[in-house]
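Need residues for this backbone.
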C-alpha cells in the first residue's frame, strides 16, 4: 500500500496544477482580502469579531478541501477509469481499490497542507487567532472533509467521462459555497437560506469549523448532517462505482 501511495504521489506531482490551485488560491485570497480595512473591523453581526478572525479563514479552508474533493479527485479517478487503468489493474494482484485509497490519501494530504498554511500564515501575517478548541476543530475537520470526499467519490461514480467529472463538481460546489457563507456571512443571510444550508452538505461543515475555531461546541444538527452525508454518499458511491 505504501508503494502504491508513493507511485501515485509521483504521478500526482507531475501535473501539480490542481493541488497548487487548491493551496495557493485560498491562501492568496486569505492574505489579500485580509488587507481590506473593512474585514479588520469588529462586526456586531459576527458577535464582536472581525470577518478575518474566523469567517474568512474558515471559508478559505473549506474552499481548499472542496476543490480537492469535488474537482481534483473525481477528475483523476474518472480519467483512470476512462483510459482503462482500473480495468487493467483488476486483472493483476494489485486491486484497483488500493489505487482509490492512495488517491484519497494524497488528496487529503493536500487539503491538510492547505489548512495548516492557512492557519499558520493567517496567524503570523494577519494576527488571526488560532483555533480555540483544537481537538474539536480537528474532529470537525476530519468529519467534514470525509463527507466532502464521499460526495467527490459519488461524482466519480456518476460522471460519464473524465472531462465531465470536474464540471459536475463545479456545478455543485459554487452554489453550496454560496449558501455556506463564502461570499456573504451566514449571519447576514435570510433565515430561510440559513435553514436550507443547515441541511446541505457544506454549510454544516463551514459552520462547525467556525464554531470550534471560536471555542464553541459544534451544533449537533451540523454533526449529524455531516455524518449522514458521509454515510449516504459513501454507500451510494460504493454501489454505483464502475471500474470500467
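Answer:
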Amino acid at each position: 500500500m505504501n508503494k502504491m501511495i508513493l507511485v501515485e504521489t509521483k504521478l500526482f506531482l507531475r501535473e501539480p496544477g490542481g493541488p497548487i490551485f487548491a493551496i495557493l488560491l485560498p491562501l492568496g485570497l486569505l492574505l489579500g482580502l485580509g488587507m481590506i480595512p473593512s474585514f479588520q473591523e469588529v462586526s456586531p453581526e459576527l458577535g464582536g469579531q472581525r470577518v478575518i478572525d474566523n469567517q474568512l479563514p474558515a471559508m478559505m479552508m473549506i474552499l481548499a478541501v472542496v476543490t480537492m474533493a469535488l474537482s481534483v479527485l473525481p477528475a483523476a479517478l474518472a480519467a483512470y477509469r476512462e483510459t482503462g487503468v482500473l480495468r487493467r489493474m483488476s486483472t493483476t494482484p494489485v486491486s484497483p481499490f488500493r489505487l482509490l485509497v492512495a488517491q484519497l490519501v494524497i488528496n487529503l494530504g493536500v487539503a491538510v497542507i492547505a489548512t495548516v498554511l492557512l492557519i499558520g500564515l493567517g496567524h503570523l501575517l494577519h494576527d488571526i487567532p488560532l483555533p480555540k478548541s483544537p481537538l474539536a476543530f480537528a474532529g470537525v475537520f476530519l468529519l467534514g472533509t470525509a463527507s466532502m470526499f464521499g460526495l467527490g467519490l459519488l461524482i466519480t461514480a456518476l460522471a460519464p467521462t473524465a472531462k465531465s467529472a470536474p464540471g459536475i463538481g463545479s456545478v455543485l460546489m459554487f452554489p453550496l459555497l454560496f449558501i455556506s457563507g463564502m461570499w456573504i456571512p451566514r449571519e447576514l443571510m435570510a433565515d430561510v437560506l440559513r435553514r436550507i444550508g443547515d441541511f446541505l452538505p457544506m454549510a454544516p461543515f463551514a459552520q462547525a469549523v467556525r464554531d470550534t475555531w471560536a471555542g464553541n461546541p459544534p451544533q449537533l444538527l451540523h454533526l449529524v448532517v455531516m455524518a449522514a452525508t458521509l454515510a449516504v454518499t459513501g454507500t451510494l458511491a460504493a454501489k454505483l462505482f464502475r471500474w470500467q
